[in-house]
Amino acid sequence: MKVIYFDNSATTRIKTEVLDEMIPFLTSEYGNASSLYSLGRKSKQAIEKARAQVAKLLNCDQDEIFFTAGGSESDNLAIKGFVYENKKRGNHIITSKIEHPAIIETCRSLEKEGFEISYIDVDESGIIKLEDLEKSIKPSTILISIMSANNEIGTIQPLEKIAKIAHSYNIAFHTDAVQAIGNMPIDVKKIGIDMLSISGHKLGAPKGIGALYKKNEIKLKKIVDGGHQEKDMRAGTENVAGIVGLGKACEIADRNMEKHIRNLKRLRDYCIIKLKKEIPNRFIINGTLEERLPGNVNISIEGANASKLIYKLDEVGICVSSGSACSSGNTFPSHVLKAIKIPQKYIDSAIRITFSENNTFEEIDYFINNLKKII
User: Of 253, 284, 309, which marks where a domain is finished?
Assistant: First the structure.
């Protein structure tokens, strides 16, 4: 049975070009990048090439990119690293109620250490209220962390306006861009972003590799002790193959951005049209369709149970999810859907469908025909 994969917000397939670039560093080019001999120097050169590829996608300087093990580590390094280094200036952090667990749980951990966190509301579209953001600012506020785009409902935040507010009060601005990178253009200089987190497996690179963009003026305390890799910012022998893969994925994203966005929008819009035709009045769309990632559809189906739907769809080879892959397996309702005030019956019946360039209209037809039968 063919697998139809509609959960690209959870993870993506490694791109062929990316894998081809990685293979030498998993086989013949296995040198440690900290070594002085030629085998090690080749690994070091490959890392710096990848750093330049990531920097070009974000429009930043090459030395502002630091490689990590993924989005969660990047978020932790940005938030903990910044507040530990700057705690003499203040102890207050502002974030939103719909952040990824990598942000929410990091902030909760810091609360136990005496830091003060404000979790601001979003509107019914999932967009933060700028007036609430500004009202939450205190003399002790040192950091604002708001995600670029939500992992469940795809809502895109007004990053440039957030950055402007933050900087008008001399506050640093971090954004978790894990879902956004590759699916929307992000120019860190134009927007005014101070720190930004990305994860390789969301844009066709492997799992276990990520990066943090950190503006040169921003000072962080490192949170992983050991060696002096990554300019003494992140200890540990570099995952050379993973870094090479992330660099190549960023190069592809930069090259194909407009085409990629256009293709995802076509798939998303076709899916919504078909849903309206085949199961009219049986579903609602969660979040706005205006400020939304191009490949994201999050719907709630009246009278359905999301977990049962997912299992039934899996039986016919279709992969969808009920929200964040990092939260699957728990029994808690989606904090994102609660924040946008979706009624409980619709929270329990919400599924997320997210597309990639590998998907087709025929797959969407197959999905909706089966969904109709199941419900």
Answer: 253
Planar angle of CA 181, 58, 133, nearest 5 degrees = 70
> Could you tell me the CA-to-CA distances from 130 to 137, 162, 182, 197, 338 in Å, in that order?
11, 7, 26, 22, 20
Q: For residue 351, what is the domain's CATH number?
A: 3.90.1150.10
What CATH number is associated with residue 192? Answer: 3.40.640.10
Structurally, the chain folds into a number of domains equal to 2
The answer to whether residues 240 and 131 belong to one domain is yes
Residues labelled catalytic = 326
pLDDT digit string (tens) for the chain, length 375 residues: 889 999 999 999 999 999 999 999 999 999 999 999 999 999 999 999 999 999 999 999 999 999 999 999 999 999 999 999 999 999 999 999 999 999 999 999 999 999 999 999 999 999 999 999 999 999 999 999 999 999 999 999 999 999 999 999 999 999 999 999 999 999 999 999 999 999 999 999 999 999 999 999 999 999 999 999 999 899 999 999 999 999 999 999 999 999 999 999 999 999 999 999 999 999 999 999 999 999 999 999 989 999 999 999 999 999 999 865 554 454 467 999 999 999 998 999 999 999 999 999 999 999 999 999 999
- Closest by alpha carbon to 174, among 141, 196, 203, 148? 196
Q: Do 322 and 225 share a domain, yes or no?
A: no
Structural domain boundaries enclosing 348:
4-12+257-374
Same-domain status, 272 and 349: yes
Using DSSP's 3-state secondary structure scheme, residue 195 falls into: strand
Cα 246 to Cα 269: distance, rounded to the nearest angstrom = 29
Residue type, 312: K
